Amino acid sequence: MTQDKQYNVAVVGATGAVGQNIIKYLEEKPFQVNNIKLLSSKRSAGTKVQFNGEDITVEEATSDSFKDIDIAFFSAGGSVSERLAPEAVKSGAIVVDNTSAFRMDKNVPLVVPEVNENDLKEHKGIIANPNCSTIQMVAALKPLQDQFGLKRVIVSTYQAVSGAGLSAQKELTEQTRQYLNDEEMIANILPAGSDKKHYPIAFNALPQIDVFEDNGYTKEELKMINETKKIMHEPNLHVAATCVRLPVFTSHSESVYIETKESNITVEDIRKALENGEGIIVEDDPSTQTYPTPLSAEGKKEVFVGRIRKDLDTENGFHLWIVSDNLVKGAAWNTVQIAEALVNNELV
Ligand code: NAP
Ligand code: 3JN
What we know:
single chain, alpha/beta, 6-stranded parallel beta sheet, 6-stranded mixed beta sheet, 24% strand, binds NADP nicotinamide-adenine-dinucleotide phosphate, binds ligand 3JN
């Protein structure tokens, strides 16, 4: 352990929904921060953001921003990471990147510490944080994979608007007001990633997150499929995903169907494995209507699992309801956990 060592950190995207949460979790001192540099686009340069009660002036992120930085957190979109993460590495920093820019690069570990912390040892300067929907699912699947083996995973998501940034949260608020006042709802933001057509999200459900690929899947769905196989080291696992945006501000929910490799598994076996899983809280009791919801998970670091059931027709099939705060475990907290693991394992 190098707990006495102090680290200089940079947060790129410090004024955004994810960046703000990264700053909040760094204030909890997962490791000692000596100096913090807060970076954004030109638009927010000059504004002040607090760190540990002190006003820090936000600066524009450029290739010169990373001198003397030990750890650089990136959450300013893929193109910013593609342009500046290699510059940060050249300056001697280790990058923990929240975007999809490098996730499927074979030289870049894609890490959820509870699942594949050991992959950090292979890093070459950049570590990728997975997509929020992937993170909460693989965290819950890990103990089941370890104990029973997994053959198949089918997931449908119910995703909060905060996954599409601060502007999407404002859009849901404004459309809700418009709808309740009998005004026309103005839609500019969602589905995120689409530059063609926008639907209102208030009082709606959109079966599109990010753009469509030629095979009819959206990019978000393909991220879940490909990232899950990489993180779990299971290239042959069968994974299918349908990703849906809901008018919920915070926390993604997922209905997940799994088939185990091992037979004769009971619901009690699945529940026990989940209860012993790292970072997982089981909230599951139909007799008291106990199950996790987006509101109950808000602001929490854990992944919550409920509605554990055996499939009625398939011998090795089970259903789960998985909920977690997409900006916390799904983004900022997982990113800070990666940095903490790098520090604790003397990999930085
Ligand atoms: P957001 O609320 O819109 O914030 C975007 C941030 O990026 C702001 O700080 C913005 O600064 C900054 N930025 C934009 N363009 C920039 C540029 N050219 N140079 C430097 N900084 C720039 O978005 P968010 O929800 O925080 O998400 C940010 C990114 O994080 C996403 O694009 C995505 O790649 C990633 N993300 C990952 C997950 C995940 O699943 N792990 C979840 C959500 C987001 P200004 O204030 O100057 O505009
Ligand atoms: O929409 C969500 O709920 C999650 C969105 C994540 C996201 C948004 C914009 C760009 C990502 C991501 O992390 O996969 C990206 C991206 O970097 O591709």
